[in-house]
Amino acid sequence: MERDWALVVGIDRYPLAGVAALKGAVRDAHEFHRWVTAPQGGAVPVEHTVLLTSPPASPAPDSAASADAVARRPVPVFSDILRFFENLLADAGLDGRRLYVYLSGHGISPTGQEAVRNAALLMANARPPNQWHSFPGNIWAEGVRSSAMFQEVVLVMDCCRDLNNNATVFPHIFGDPVEDGRSCLLVEAYATGWASKARELPLPPDNSEQGVFTHSLLHVLRTGRMTGALLKESVQQHLSKLLQGVKRVQQPEIGRDDDLAKVVFNDNAPTPRTDVVLKGHPAKLPAISSVPPGGDLTPVTLRDWRFNNNGWCGTLEPGTYLFAKPDGGLKQFRVLPGLTEEITV
Fold first, then answer.
1. pTM above 0.90, yes or no
2. Is residue 116 over pLDDT 80?
3. Which CATH number characterizes residue 302's domain?
4. Helix/strand/coil for 319
5. Quick check: 253 and 188 in contact, CB under 8 A?
6. How is 31-50 classified by DSSP, letter by letter?
């Protein structure tokens, strides 16, 4: 989208903070950047994006810097993010449609006013005990929204929200709210709730460490065009299944339903098709109807469905459906993008 922009930040290493290095934040940032610039993804022009990540653990072969020096370099820092927003403010002709802000790394919830809502990404130069430099994602995203620089702001934060009462929180630079900002939308997607942990796990396809929230988010997003409301429902279900058997539950927080219903992701992509399996259904083609909200049942033509010894399988668009069971009863089921639906008749 020619009027869209994106800031993507991923920080694995905090050489001055004495905290454990992460393994997946930089990878997740690159994956999000890949989606947000894909023609059938976010479709943001590459020249409208800024990708800020920790440097490689090892220097390039032709570099004179030692691996240790590279690993200890505190990058990125707040001034790198500030430069992105200053450039937006300096663009007198900016007429933005949507701004994406993706942040991945160690995170905190600065205490104080509206603490329950606060979420900040620790910057690479964070240093205990008093210089916990951070970027308060929600405060700056709200500042962009209220300034009406963009019609929509999408904030994604895959980081913990640990409490911290001495974080260095930099106020936003967008001035007082303007009247037009009332009609602009802010969609916030947090990996976890206030004062809670986000986590990384070895995940497919190559068993590398990834943030589980980003993994679920991108898995669903890459299936096709959808509203924010459908994205929220699908990510919550996908993450829940991903963490089955894991002792500590991670509950993401994703936007307000009224706002999410107004936002469409992957505008240029086709509608997703989801695998559906009706186990134990006899060889006769099943009768399935869609159940639109507040509408009449609509029979579905099953063109791509096939029968095997276990029953019928095929694909359906996301939505709510009814099928006639062999015993004459009816069964309702929900189809979500990126989640195979298996039903035993």
1. yes
2. no
3. 2.60.40
4. strand
5. yes
6. HHHHHHHSTTTT---GGGEE
